[in-house]
Write a structure and sequence with these properties.
heterodimer, A: alpha/beta, Rossmann fold, 17 helices, 32% helix, B: ABC transporter involved in vitamin B12 uptake, BtuC, 2 strands
């Protein structure tokens, strides 16, 4: 697609000169230079821990650089807080959302915009208008806690678009969107850029960086590894800039057939008491030992509900126990620990606050789900064994951390996800349910996670992956399906389906014609 | 700004130990200034407040008698607070423990066996636990906020005690004074020493200290309580039973407070009186946090709190210091202790020159 390259000899909208930031024990940013022209869409690429987040926080005024200077439209600025950054016209969509869960969409937006913007009620029409203009449907009066991850991100994006914005920073914005939605977002972003707004776009999906961004800065280990024009580079070249060597990052895994069905869901219907939630209707699903089943779908179409029913956080009555069974045992009425004893392992969508306790050390977080693996004797925690398990996970899955006593909160997303996945895999589960396993995770860590899942599959475990990343599902899934409005499409072998079919299922067209032409990718 | 705090990223082991010392130095120096300004000799006043109360065996035993109920209540509260269950009801649980123990004791005054004492202690502990159980039931059954229910139960407990001491439990030979009959000898806690009032309740406290330490630091139940407090969703997704843990934490909390109450009536007091507790249950809340919810820390902070109680009374009597001043001194000490704790997670940084105001301020005005 033709991206209008902005006029080069203009004062840059934002210029960074030798920005340096040191944290206790690590140099997060080492003399970083960056320049963004008005109307330019600039990509910031890099592994987790490369210093992208720190750099963005410096630009947004959350963190203060130790050295270096920042020029805003040619003038030196010293941002002391995000409010000041916002008043300059800098907006940011964080990867971890900063929304108040008990407030409504409109109240959250009103809070961020300050008193001058008016009351939440006054903002509602404008929120509707902006959300419609940019193709992101959103009801302003809904409460945040009832929104899915994808919908929450829409709130964050719209919150920035409500203001008069000159630089929009987006941290992995497309990770929760369908391909169609991502394309819509790109249209929005291009329109914004054409209006003169600069965009700093952080993503690890190289394809979309190439499709969208005019230029890119690649960070590695806190330094600038290179500048490039993404449209002229291949995935391999970009990946090599990011991680140093790109071998084994992008692979095709052989597909497997699996043996006997381990997880069986028969006619599962569940009415969600939450009026904004999604109810499940008549779900039938089988996952065989030794295969990976991938479930696609846009956020809020029943994924959270299905996951809660599978993990045991949501239990059914005793009579309905047989609607979910593990290897023939009815389990739908069992609590989570009993299901775990029967071979379940579970990786929730949210790493901090669900999959791991942020304040506790990695060792304690290993104990969190592995407590039935002989780590507790006579009611006392066997510290030495817990420690050994944590060390084992850290080593086998290449988790970057000072030691096993580091709090989970201090790890980057990808590292923590490797730890969580490692913790579940080392329990040798018969069934692993993973939600968004590589959401917001860099290429290197994603490849590690995919390899680990494939290895677990080949060892004979049944794996169910619920993800919004279609590339990922096609890459590792052996059979695919999609959730839409609480219904599950029939499953198809990955080799016999294509992106268009899955896109159709995600939109609720389960009887999409299986023409021979669509069977080839 | 000249002095700024920046996060350390992790706890500083050094400051963990130094912050109480720093607080002590600050309290002593500011306290001296305060006393000097009021025209008292600072050193003498501090001596009266902090050293005189524990300068002889009797003083130490009084300190322990005072610290005992605070320690027991605070240990129980630490368990509940680790689970982020804000039990404010230790006072009420203590009173109910004292009341139930006394109700039994006045009916078995003539019993000679040592089992009388065991029965009384057991009754008090169970009654305290049951009183906390009410809070647990309201919380788990109706999702009622435990802060409100436990405070309200405090007043119910106090009035129940007053009713009983003026009515059914009043000593028939007591000249109509609102107090129960003295307990039988067999139902009193034996003294540890000839002089002083220190009694075997100290052993219960030590036992409780070890038990709570093992529970919180070593046991898997303690780990579950901690996880529940930090992150309810994580606890749910691995199948920790939230309701069961809430019950457990509150029952332990109430049981220990009830034990503290029954130890008061069966120990130093020897009968049920309206003023069983001068607010031990409330002091224990401060003590629990001051000890950072750690059993060892709580031991020290309960001793400190008891010292401040006794020292304050001492200074009022011997130096004519107004009560407000000793309370001010107590408040100062607590303030400095909590303030110094900030340094465990944050590092102070002194910027000697003012940062230049960048043109951002001008820009800001333009942009608005």
């Amino acid at each position: 697609m033709p991206n209008a390259i902005p006029i080069p000899d203009q004062t840059p909208r934002l210029q960074l000169r030798t920005i340096t930031k040191r944290y206790p024990g690590c140099l997060a940013n080492d003399a970083i230079d960056l320049s963004i022209a008005p109307g330019e869409i600039h990509a910031l690429l890099g592994e987790n821990g490369a210093g992208k987040s720190t750099l963005m926080k410096i630009i947004y005024g959350v963190v203060h650089a130790d050295a270096g200077e920042m020029l805003w439209q040619g003038q030196r600025v010293n941002l002391r807080n995000p409010a000041q950054a916002r008043s300059l016209g800098i907006g940011m969509v964080f990867q971890h959302f900063s929304l108040f869960e008990t407030l409504s969409v409109a109240q959250n937006i009103a809070l961020a915009m300050g008193a001058a913007a008016g009351t939440p009620k006054q903002l509602e029409p404008k929120i509707r208008e902006v959300s419609q203009r940019y193709g992101m449907p959103l009801e302003p009066e809904r409460l945040i806690h009832s929104l899915s991850i994808g919908e929450r991100q829409r709130v964050e994006i719209i919150r920035c678009l409500m203001q008069d914005i000159r630089l929009l920073i987006l941290d992995e914005p497309t990770s929760v969107l369908t391909p169609q939605e991502a394309d819509d977002l790109f249209v929005t972003l291009r329109r914004l850029a054409a209006e003169g707004c600069s965009i700093l776009f952080i993503s690890h999906k190289l394809g979309e960086v190439r499709a969208l961004c005019h230029s890119a800065t690649v960070l590695r280990g806190g330094r600038v590894a290179g500048h490039c024009v993404p449209a002229e580079c291949s995935d391999q070249q970009l990946a090599r800039l990011m991680v140093g060597e790109a071998a084994g990052l992008i692979t095709d895994y052989p597909k497997a057939k699996g043996t006997e069905a381990f997880l069986q869901i028969k006619g599962l219907s569940w009415h969600n008491p939450d009026p904004f939630g999604c109810s499940l209707t008549d779900i039938d699903l089988e996952v065989r030992s030794g295969e990976i089943v991938g479930i696609a779908g846009v956020a809020g179409n029943g994924q959270d509900e299905l996951l809660a029913l599978l993990s045991g956080e949501q239990r059914l009555s005793h009579d309905a126990g047989a609607t979910i069974s593990f290897g023939g045992h009815p389990v739908a009425h069992w609590p989570p620990d009993a299901r775990r004893r029967h071979g379940l392992a579970f990786v929730p969508a949210e790493r901090l606050g669900h999959g791991a306790v942020p304040e506790l050390s990695l060792a304690d977080n290993a104990l969190l789900t592995a407590f039935q693996q002989g780590l507790v004797s006579k009611g006392l925690v066997q510290r030495r064994k817990v420690e050994a398990l944590a060390q084992d996970i850290i080593q086998r899955f290449g988790v970057k951390t000072p030691d096993s006593q580091a709090p989970a909160r201090s790890l980057s997303g990808g590292n923590l996800q490797k730890f969580i996945l490692g913790r579940e895999i080392l329990q040798q589960p018969k069934l692993l349910v993973a939600a968004h396993p590589t959401w917001g995770v860099d290429v290197g860590a994603a490849a590690t996670i995919h390899r680990a899942l494939i290895a677990l599959r080949d060892a004979g475990a049944a794996i169910l992956v619920i993800s919004e990343d279609l590339d990922e599902l096609f890459q590792i899934g052996d059979r695919l399906g999609a959730l839409c409005g609480g219904r599950l499409s029939p499953l198809q072998a990955t080799a016999d389906t294509c992106l268009i079919d899955v896109g159709g299922w995600m939109a609720g067209r389960f009887d999409a014609p299986q023409s021979p032409a669509s069977a080839t990718l | 700004m000249l002095l700024s705090l920046e996060p350390r990223g992790q706890q500083s082991r050094l400051m963990l130990w130094c912050s109480p010392l720093l607080a002590a130095v600050l309290t002593l120096s500011c306290g001296s200034l305060l006393f000097a300004a009021l025209g008292h000799d600072p050193l003498l006043t501090l001596q009266t407040l902090l050293i005189a109360p524990v300068s002889d065996g009797y003083g130490v035993s009084e300190l322990l008698v005072k610290a005992l109920p605070i320690l027991l209540c605070a240990l129980g509260l630490a368990v509940a607070y680790q689970a982020r269950i804000w039990n404010i009801g230790a006072e009420g649980q203590l009173l109910i423990g004292a009341l139930a123990g006394s109700a039994l004791a006045v009916n078995i005054i003539d019993m000679q066996s040592r089992w009388a004492l065991v029965l009384i202690l057991l009754t008090g502990t169970l009654a305290g636990a049951a009183w906390a159980g009410l809070t647990a039931w309201l919380r788990t059954r109706f999702n009622a906020n435990e802060i409100l229910t436990s405070i309200m139960l405090n007043y119910i407990a106090l009035n129940l005690l007053l009713f009983c001491v003026h009515g059914p439990l009043k000593d028939p030979d007591g000249f109509n004074f609102p107090q129960s009959a003295m307990f039988g000898d067999a139902s009193r806690l034996p003294l540890l020493m000839e002089d002083g009032r220190i009694h075997v309740g100290v052993y219960f406290a030590l036992l409780a200290l070890v038990a709570v330490w093992v529970l919180l630091q070593k046991s898997f139940v303690g780990f579950q309580i901690k996880v529940l407090g930090l992150d309810k969703r994580a606890a749910g997704f691995v199948g920790f039973r939230e309701k069961r843990l809430i019950w457990l934490a509150l029952l332990i909390s109430g049981g220990l407070a009830g034990l503290a109450g029954v130890c008061e009536v069966a120990g130093p007091i020897g009968q049920l009186v309206p003023q069983v507790s001068p607010g031990y249950g409330y002091a224990a809340i401060t003590v629990a946090f001051l000890g950072r919810l750690n059993p060892i820390g709580i031991l020290f902070s309960s001793l400190l709190m008891a010292l401040l109680y006794i020292g304050g009374e001492n200074a009022q009597m011997s130096m004519n210091l107004p009560q407000a001043i000793t309370q001010l001194f107590q408040g100062m000490m607590l303030f400095f202790l909590l303030a110094s704790d900030v340094l465990i997670l944050y590092r102070p940084r002194l910027n000697l020159r003012w940062p230049r105001r960048a043109p951002a301020t001008a820009m800001q005005a333009g942009a608005l």
